[in-house]
Write a structure and sequence with these properties.
The complex is a heterodimer.
Chain A (H helix, E strand, L loop, with lengths): L2 H6 L10 H5 L10 H10 L3 H5 L12 H5 L6 H15 L4 H13 L20 E2 L8 E4 L2 H5 L1 H16 L4 E3 L9 H5 L3 H17 L4 E4 L2 H9 L7 E4 H10 L12 E4 L13 H9 L4 E3 L30 H12 L3 E4 L2 H14 L6 E4 H9 L3
Helix pairs in contact in A: 9-17, 13-14, 15-16
Chain B lengths: L4 E4 L3 H11 L5 E4 L22 H14 L3 E4 L2 E9 L2 E8 L14 H5 L3 E3 L8 E3 L1 E2 L11 E2 L9 H5 L12 E7 L1 E4 L4 E2 L16 E3 H8 L18 E8 L15 H15 L4 E6 L9 H10 L3 E4 L2 E7 L2 E8 L4 E7 L1 E6 L1 E2 L4 H8 L26 E3 L9 H19 L14
Parallel strand pairs in B: 1-2, 1-11, 2-3, 11-22, 13-20, 14-15, 14-20, 15-16
Antiparallel strand pairs in B: 4-5, 5-10, 6-7, 8-9, 12-21, 17-18, 18-19
Helix pairs in contact in B: 1-2, 1-9, 5-6, 6-7
The chains are: A alpha/beta, B alpha/beta.
């Protein structure tokens, strides 16, 4: 029995009902069984060998287990804890150690240079707090939205739209660094704390009181895991939905498409933001909005969270759920799967390519749809 | 000082307490907020573990209550305010207007036939319809009709057909006051709102229902005439899910609702009985069959071919036209997906919405679970902690019919102890029933 884990994660209280395992998006197709893992960690002596199973890295930290646990346990945190012990022992997959090293050196898990973090904004005229500009709200860009060529389109759509509405916002330029959400979920608690301190120091230095994020992962970590000193944190869908509600954002254009929406776990089930993204989509003229059967609290995870952008699933864990999602969307007759998370966007788009159905369906961020529809037809 | 006893709530516990007190010769005022007494028990098709019909054991009690010389029955009424203390509570009661004079109404039902407005029936848990002029169910006591003003369009067609001239659209609520020596709270429970567990699809899929709804489908007097069917078809694969809104911190209900294991076993039996070829699966965490002859009943139901699988369901979703129920069989350590035509949720027992308000009016405490707090859970489960106020049935916490009736008797005895010797001794000989 491992008392440290058992006490830290309250494992004595688990009554083995199976709610966690039954709701786990990866158990249906792979070897990770979180319910059994809790029991094994509680009862067995060979903790080291349990921890070294490759499926420890399968967890996407979607939190379905934690949100539904009838006993109030947080099973996904046990997995993060196990990963933490592996980080300490230096027994982590190579891709994970690369991602962590990249964050340490360059402030993003892909290892793009720090000096290029603000390049996406070069020609837009976005205010930059680090260059002496002032603004009421910080746009925390995040790593994928700052660097990834596909996600940059979302970032530019958001910044462009806000600029056209003369919204008062600014970025942190090259001083912004990774929020640490994925770092923490890969078990590197020490690095996470460092990043949280760095970002918090920046927020204080530039008197940031309001933060808007593009990624639900940044949103979640600022809102729920940073000591954020009472700062307001919003996801961009909340801001845009608010602007539409106030009549400040209108759509001269039209989008004659059948659109469905994929709820990102970090936005939807973890933070209850279900309606704002839908309100935005429904406000765009011409869109015929349809729902996935598995939507809102039952949304199927795309498998992008918990470090899964950087580590492959263990052998025998089947095809990515993003593929299931795309197959469902094609079956429903959707032209576009809209989402509001960089990881979901990348994973779902990959799935479209893997499935070879580029001619049938597109994956777009809600912000891209908004930017398209505010241009006069 | 008064030797009368007020009973609030006319379900099985309230009726039993009222009768036990009244049969000693003491006066009882029984206040029930619904148009009829009877409570949840009368809505069930059968009761465990004996499988007898609740109407057969319940309706005689209803009739006895209404005919009892010592019981003043106030249905469609609510306690407005209470002041005073043991021996002399001053109670003000609001008698809500039925817009039909109960004294004149003959229960002929012409008003309901004439009424053009249909709304979901509370009695049938919205699985059937009732009129705006209605009687909740045929055996209702009192057998008088009520006009639901929230649905009524005042076409006054009922007025024209009422030979008894009982209809009065201008009627207003009446207030009456009574001096009471002791009070018994038998306010019962409400059913957990299963849509608070969105992963189970209640409210999203019409073929995800609660066990209470299945009771209505199975009961001969219910909206389907006793046929268990979904969209006019008999389900061939039925999955029961236990502990929906019980033992679940994620929805703030930490306690066990105590009755659902047995109710589910009983309902699984209904399905196997009515649809002999049906595949019936019960997904559970633990089976709690603690009452007399309960374990034997559980074994009987298993023997009837019901498959018990250990592991709660985490998600219900749709694949093509079928519902898919996803769970882990924790004994096998394997995930499974069960295609179902009907999913039945064992929705738990929660305190009634009016409990908080009533606790404030009576100045008595609620427990952390939201039910009225007993003075001592072992030695004084029928005492409220305030002298002169006693608890019976699910008002104090989830319990089955047997335990509710036993506690009602105990509460009645405590109330009698409180009023015996008070001014105005019983003026009648004890009535034996």
């Amino acid at each position: 029995m491992n008392l440290v884990f058992a006490e830290k994660y309250d494992l004595f209280k688990c009554f083995q009902c199976g709610k966690c395992s039954a709701g786990c998006p990866v158990l249906m197709k792979g070897p990770l069984n979180i319910r059994r893992l809790i029991r094994e960690v509680l009862l067995r002596d060979d903790l080291v060998s349990i921890c070294q199973r490759s499926e420890i890295w399968d967890c996407t930290t979607c939190q379905a287990c934690t949100l539904r646990c009838p006993r109030g346990l947080r099973p996904h945190e046990l997995l993060m804890g196990i990963r933490g012990s592996l980080v300490e022992a230096g027994k982590i997959p190579e891709t994970v150690s690369e991602a962590l090293e990249n964050v340490f050196k360059q402030g993003n898990p892909w290892g793009w240079p720090r000096s290029k973090r603000h390049e996406w904004a070069a020609d837009l005229g976005v205010k930059d707090l680090t260059r002496g500009d002032r603004a009421g709200r910080l746009l925390f860009v995040g790593c994928a939205p700052a660097y990834d060529p596909r996600v940059q389109s979302v970032t530019r759509a958001l910044a462009g739209t806000l600029l056209s509405l003369k919204a008062d916002f600014a970025i942190l330029g090259n001083e912004e660094t990774c929020c640490g959400s994925e770092v923490r979920r890969m078990g590197e608690e020490g690095l996470f704390e460092m990043l949280a301190e760095d970002n918090s120091r920046l927020f204080s230095k530039y008197n940031v009181t309001d933060i808007m994020t593009i990624s639900p992962h940044c949103y979640n970590v600022f809102k729920n895991e940073y000591q954020n000193g009472g700062r307001q944190v919003k996801h961009y869908t909340q801001v845009i939905s608010g602007l539409i509600g106030e009549g400040k954002l209108t759509f001269p254009g039209k989008l004659e498409k059948v659109v469905t929406y994929h709820d990102p776990c970090y936005l939807g089930k973890q933070n209850g933001i279900f309606d704002e993204p839908r309100n935005i989509i429904k406000a765009i003229p011409g869109i015929n909005f349809i729902e996935f059967d598995r939507s809102r609290e039952r949304s199927l995870c795309c498998e992008g969270g918990g470090g899964r952008m950087f580590v492959e699933a263990s052998p025998g864990s089947g095809e990515r759920l993003a593929l299931t999602r795309i197959a469902d969307a094609v079956k429903m007759g959707a032209d576009i799967v809209a989402t509001a998370c960089p990881f979901c966007l990348l994973n779902l788009e990959d799935a479209v390519k893997t499935a070879g159905c580029e001619d049938k369906i597109q994956v777009r961020d809600i912000m891209e749809l908004v930017a398209e529809a505010i241009r006069p037809a | 000082m008064s030797n009368a006893v007020l009973v609030i709530g006319g379900g099985i516990a309230g009726m039993q307490a009222a009768l036990d007190v009244a049969n000693t010769g003491h006066k009882v005022v029984l206040v029930e907020k619904a148009p009829s007494i009877g409570g949840h028990m009368l809505q069930f098709s059968e009761v465990f573990p004996t499988l007898d019909c609740p109407q057969c054991i319940g309706t005689p009690k209803m009739t006895e209550v209404s005919a009892h010389p010592n019981i003043e029955l106030m249905t469609y009424s609510e306690v407005e305010s209470v002041s005073g203390s043991i021996g002399r509570f001053n109670v003000k009661i609001r008698k809500k207007s039925r817009f039909i004079d109960a004294a004149r109404c003959t229960g002929c039902g012409e008003c309901a036939i004439a009424c053009p407005i249909s709304v979901p029936s509370e009695w049938d848990l919205a699985l059937g319809q009732r009129k705006a002029a209605y009687i909740p169910f045929p055996q209702a006591v009192p057998a008088v009709y009520t006009i639901d003003k929230t649905a009524c369009v005042e076409c006054r067609k009922c007025e024209k057909v009422c030979d008894a001239a009982a209809i009065n659209f201008e009627a207003e609520d009446e207030f009456v006051e009574r001096v009471i020596g002791a009070i018994i709270l038998a306010t019962g429970y409400e059913v957990f709102d299963a849509s608070l567990k969105p992963e189970l699809g209640y409210g999203t899929y019409p073929n995800v229902i609660t066990g209470y709804e299945l009771e209505r489908l199975d009961q001969a007097g219910g909206p389907t005439g006793g046929k268990i069917e979904v969209n006019g078809k008999e389900p061939q694969n039925v999955v029961f899910i236990q502990c929906v809104g019980s033992r679940d911190k994620s929805v703030g209900v930490e306690y066990c609702s105590r009755v659902c294991c047995m109710a589910t076993a009983k309902q699984a039996h209904y399905v196997r009985h009515k649809i002999p070829g049906a595949r019936v699966t019960v997904c559970y965490i633990d089976i709690r069959a603690f009452g007399k002859r309960y374990e034997e009943f559980y074994e009987r139901v298993q023997g009837e071919g019901v498959i018990y699988r250990r592991g709660v369901v985490s998600e219900v979703y749709k694949r093509d036209d079928k519902l898919v129920v996803r769970a882990e069989d924790t004994l096998l350590g394997e995930m499974f997906e069960e295609e179902a035509d009907l999913v039945v949720l064992a929705a738990g027992i929660v305190p009634g919405k009016a409990t908080v308000e009533l606790a404030e009016k009576l100045n008595i405490p609620l427990g952390p679970d939201g039910f009225f707090l007993e003075n001592n859970p072992k030695l004084a489960a029928m005492e409220s902690g305030v002298p002169g106020i006693y608890l019976a049935g699910c008002a104090e916490g989830p319990k089955d019919i047997s335990d509710s009736v036993v506690q009602a008797g105990a509460a009645a005895f405590m109330a009698l102890l409180a009023v015996v010797g008070a001014e105005g001794e019983p003026d009648r000989e004890p009535v034996r029933s």
